[in-house]
Design a protein that fits this description.
This protein has a three-stranded antiparallel sheet with strand order 1-2-3, with no helix packed on it. It is elongated. The longest helix has 27 residues, at 151-177. The chain contains twelve helices and six strands. It is mainly alpha-helical and 291 residues long. Helix 6 runs antiparallel to helix 7 and helix 7 runs parallel beside helix 9 (199-211).
Length: 291
C-alpha cells in the first residue's frame, strides 16, 4: 500500500489506484496524511475545509467524510474491510489519526534519503549528491498538485517546498564541489527562473557559469537578480551577493576552487580585492558597482 502527496494525491496498491475523487474527502485525506500517526483535531479539519465560514453542520459533515474515507480504505485488499479500516483511520478524543507505516508514505522516503544525504555532505559528496538526488526524484511535481487546499494544508506545503529548495541547493553545492559546474547550469537556470528572488540559487548559477568560462553571463545573473528584487520587493541584493559579484569581476581564484568553500555564499566572505583584473573583460571601478 502506498500513499503519495509529493505530487498528485495518490492511494494505491500494486499499481491499482484507490484515491478518493470527492474534493473535500481528498482534502481531508491529504491533511491526515501530512500528519500521519498524529491526532488531527476536529477543529483543524474544520478550519482546513471551510476556513472562517464553516457550516452549522460542519461536525456531522466531517464525520460523514471520515466514514467515506474508511469505506475507500476498506476497498484496498491489504485492509480489506470497513472494520479493518477503522483501525487504520482511528477516531480519537477530539480528532482523528491515520495509521501509516513509514515505508508507505512518500514524504517519509524523502525525509529518510535527505537525512542520509546530509550526513555525507563534505565527507563523501558523490554519495551525498546521489542520495539527495534520489530524494528529489521522489517528488512527482508540486505537492498535492491536484488537491484544493485551505490554510492548514497551505502552511504544510510552504514548509515542504522550502525543504525541497534547501535539498536542491545542498545537492548542487555537492556537485559544484565535485567539479560538475557544467552539468548544473541548465538546472540552475530553470530554478532561478522559477524562484527569481532566491539569492542562493543565483549565487550558485554565478559560480557555475564563471567556472565554465562564461563570466559575462555570470555577471548578467546578478544584474537580473538586482532588477527583480528592486522591482518586486524594493530591495537590493545582500552584501554577500554584492561581494560575490565583486569576486567574479576580479576573477578571484577562490571561486575556481571547487573544494574552496563549504557554502557558495561563503565565497563572498573569503574573497579579497584583487589588484589584477581579468583580461578582456570588465574591470574598471565603474564596472565593479551593481548598477
Amino acid at each position: 500500500m502506498e500513499f503519495a502527496v509529493l505530487g498528485p494525491l495518490k492511494v494505491s496498491e500494486q499499481g491499482r489506484l484507490y484515491t478518493p475523487t470527492a474534493p473535500k474527502q481528498r482534502q481531508l485525506l491529504a491533511l491526515l496524511l501530512l500528519n500521519a500517526n498524529q491526532v488531527v483535531s476536529t477543529r483543524s479539519c474544520i478550519e482546513e475545509l471551510w476556513e472562517d465560514t464553516p457550516p452549522n453542520s460542519a461536525l456531522s459533515t466531517i464525520q460523514s467524510y471520515i466514514l467515506q474515507l474508511r469505506r475507500a480504505l476498506g476497498k484496498i485488499p491489504q485492509i480489506g474491510s470497513l472494520q479493518a479500516a477503522r483501525r487504520v483511520l482511528e477516531t480519537r478524543d477530539g480528532g482523528y489519526l491515520l495509521v501509516v507505516r513509514s515505508d508507505e508514505l512518500d514524504v517519509n522516503a524523502f525525509t529518510s534519503l535527505v537525512r542520509q544525504g546530509r550526513a555525507r555532505l563534505h565527507r563523501d559528496d558523490a554519495a551525498a549528491s546521489d542520495l539527495l538526488g534520489r530524494a528529489l526524484r521522489v517528488w512527482q511535481g508540486s505537492a498535492l498538485s491536484d488537491v484544493q487546499v485551505g490554510p492548514v494544508l497551505r502552511a504544510h506545503l510552504v514548509g515542504l517546498e522550502e525543504e525541497r529548495i534547501s535539498v536542491q541547493e545542498q545537492r548542487i553545492d555537492a556537485d559544484l564541489r565535485l567539479g560538475r559546474h557544467h552539468e548544473v547550469i541548465g538546472e540552475l537556470s530553470a530554478l532561478t527562473t522559477k524562484y527569481p528572488t532566491q539569492e542562493y540559487l543565483h549565487a550558485q548559477l554565478m559560480v557555475a557559469l564563471h567556472r565554465s568560462g562564461r563570466r559575462t553571463q555570470a555577471l548578467e545573473v546578478v544584474q537580473r537578480l538586482r532588477r527583480v528584487m528592486h522591482d518586486e520587493l524594493g530591495l537590493e541584493p545582500s552584501p554577500r551577493i554584492r561581494s560575490l559579484h565583486q569576486a567574479v569581476l576580479a576573477c578571484d581564484p577562490v571561486i575556481d576552487n571547487p573544494m574552496g568553500t563549504d557554502s557558495i555564499l561563503d565565497l563572498a566572505g573569503r574573497t579579497e580585492p584583487a589588484d589584477a583584473r581579468c583580461r578582456g573583460g570588465p574591470g574598471t571601478v565603474a564596472d565593479e558597482r551593481l548598477r
